[in-house]
Amino acid sequence: AGPPKKRYSVTLLPGDGIGPEVISVAKDVLSLAASLEGIALQFEEMRVGGAAIDADGVPLPEETLSVARQSDAVLLGAIGGYKWDSNVRELKPETGLLKLRAGLGVFANLRPATVLPQLVDSSTLKREVAEGVDIMVVRELTGGIYFGNPRGFGKNDNGEDIGFNTEVYAASEIDRIAHIAFETARKRRGRLCSVDKANVLEASVLWRKRVTNVASEYPDVQLSHMYIDNAAMQLVRDPKQFDTIVTNNIFGDILSDEASMITGSIGMLPSASLGESGPGLFEPIHGSAPDIAGQDKANPLATVLSAAMLLRYGLGEENAAKRIENAVLETLDKGFRTGDIFSTGKVLVGCRRMGEEVLKSVDSQI
Ligand code: ATP
Ligand code: MG
User: Fold this and answer.
1) Which of 8, 105, 192, 220 is within CB 3.0–4.6 Å of 72 for a Cys-Cys bond?
2) Main-chain dihedrals φ then ψ at residue 55, nearest 5 degrees
3) For the segment 338-349, what is each residue's pLDDT rounded down to a tens digit?
4) Of the candidates 228, 234, 232, which has an alpha carbon nearest to the alpha carbon of residue 199?
């Protein structure tokens, strides 16, 4: 098929628990899908989390961050485990992940909640409601009440103890997440719902105003607004009404977890975290699953689908992304299931076998 058209470097961060197992599968799928599209990927594997604490004494070695920053995209497995439980913040595996996000400047978190036809019975909702759900939640990740100042503890005028936080957004922070949300909606079905609490919160009034402004640059995307309380309700009443949702840090934290439960299968859900420029970070939403680590039981599909997001949102390689997504659907159509998504009549397989089946399907995609 001639010489490769494009070259990219991808940093692999297997991490802890089932991380190395699912990353190994995703790496093979990613390189095959890319090469079939004439793309050459160069992988560099680095340590993070508990694995890095053991080897380097810190959860995010400087070298890991610098290699990640210089690459075109970062694929992460999972971080953490009982072994590294610690009260010292600097020695927590999870601190490595927070530092990695900060170091890469990723302020937009994209989490799809897709009910696949093959897994509709995993949904917590009735079949009629769940069937066909395909939502993307775009959550602002580095601002709002989780980071706003002033924050802290004190006393009120009555001398009573108080705790306080501040919901604050600058116009530029809203504009940049809005741009990512509109771009995302444009790659999907062209509808964006911005979720806020503009009837109560000043930060939400500004949010709504800036998002509405940015909309004028995207005439092909249809924008609507919804209050968070209504959105939380609509998400379980009639989730099919949503395409792309954009919202602030705290509302996005809650809505994205709510949306993921609609699908009912944690082992299937990918995520992307994007910045203005520089590499994006792609990872499954599940954790390190220490209870099944090292047993070849993990579902690798959340990481495989994260690799598809890496191609689409990280490298702009839509065809290779589609190849992976179609292969996952085909593998499920053939009846292959890991334990977490198994039902009677299906073929129970382990992590590696599931990977081999996906590879076969990637290869047979036209
Ligand atoms: P963390 O703090 O790292 O997020 P957690 O305990 O909150 O960990 P997970 O590690 O995601 O959450 O595990 C939750 C449950 O889901 C566990 O029983 C685990 O075995 C299961 N699980 C998570 N990911 C997978 C997967 N990819 N395949 C199969 N089962 C999984
Ligand atoms: Mg967790």
Assistant:
1) 8
2) -90, -35
3) 999 999 999 999
4) 228
288 lines ligand 1 (CB under 6 A): yes
Both structure tokens of 363: 């290869």
State the chain's mean pLDDT as an integer: 96
∠ CA 281-282-284, rounded to 5°: 140
Smallest CA-to-CA distance from 349 within 299, 286, 290, 294 is with 299
254 CB contacts (<8 Å, ≥6 apart)? 232
3-class secondary structure, 326: helix
Atom of ligand 1 nearest to the CA of 18: 27
Please report which confidence band the pLDDT of residue 307 belongs to, taking 50, 70 and 90 as the band edges.
very high
In this prediction, residue 103 carries a pLDDT of: 96
The three-point CA angle 221-223-226 to 5° equals: 155
Cα four-point dihedral sign 319, 321, 326, 327: positive
- 161: its two tokens: 């103890």
Q: What is the reported pTM?
A: 0.94
3-state class (DSSP) for residue 301: helix
